[in-house]
Design a protein that fits this description.
It holds the Pfam family DUF218. The chain has a five-stranded parallel sheet with strand order 3-2-1-4-5, with helices on both faces. It starts with a helix and ends in a 15-residue tail after the last helix. The protein is built from seven helices and five strands, in the order H-E-H-E-H-E-H-E-H-E-H-H. By secondary structure, it is an alpha/beta fold. Helix 5 links the parallel strand 4 and strand 5.
């Protein structure tokens, strides 16, 4: 059973990864969470010269309530500063609580600052790359984007904050959102291969359903 779960989960993990090639951009846009490895990755991209400034976006979400002493964005920014990113190269959006708000609130912040970047590097957890892309393209069309995440394999990803089971639950839930959210206007449509959706269904049958959203029955 464990090997079957691993095989199914690896298939879903691989689908979420976009494997974009990075190039120098106008800014690095970090969608914050409970995983500070994302902040570290974004800081390394900045220090490697990929963009002149970083935006950290995130308030307090379901998974970070009580984890940090301040917003996700402020906590991630501190990680970046500790790694050598100058304060004046950081913008903070500390109110958003979901991916759509990350994009909309950051868009408003940049407009308020008189900034109009055309090319973005979006930084996110590996298993949220595809949904981040689909959400951004819906909420802020007309921009050039690439998506990046810490170069960590599925087997290496679980840590003190996210167990093996947690990771599977979240990425199964994200796959459901990739399918359902376009109809609600939250994101653009993404093709989901049959074998990937079958892996989703098997994992749900095996009990990995904690991050699923409730859907209305057909015809309701």
């Amino acid at each position: 059973m464990a090997s079957q779960v691993h095989s199914l989960a690896q298939k879903v993990w691989n689908y979420h990864l976009l494997n974009d090639s990075l190039e120098k951009s106008d800014c690095i846009f970090v969608l914050c969470s409970n995983d500070v490895r994302v902040a570290e990755h974004a800081a390394r991209l900045f220090l490697d010269g990929y963009a002149p400034y970083i935006i950290f976006s995130g308030g307090v979400g379901e998974l970070t309530n009580g984890m940090f002493s301040r917003s996700e964005a402020e906590s991630f920014a501190l990680v970046a500063v500790d790694m050598g990113v100058p304060d004046d190269c950081i913008l903070i959006e500390p109110q958003s609580t979901n991916t759509g708000e990350n994009v909309l609130f950051t868009r408003a912040l940049l407009e308020e600052k008189g900034l109009d970047p055309q090319q973005f590097i979006l930084v996110q957890k590996p298993f949220m790359e595809r949904r981040t892309y689909a959400t951004f393209m819906q909420q802020w069309p007309g921009k050039q984007i690439t998506v990046s995440s810490p170069p960590i394999s599925f087997d290496e990803y679980p840590n003190e904050q996210l167990t093996y089971s947690d990771v599977i639950n979240v990425m199964v839930g994200d796959l459901q959102r990739i399918r359902d959210y376009p109809a609600q206007g939250y994101s653009i449509s993404q093709d989901i291969p049959i074998d990937v959706w079958q892996a989703f269904e098997f994992l749900v049958e095996l009990g990995f359903n904690e991050h699923l959203i409730k859907t209305k029955p057909a015809g309701s």
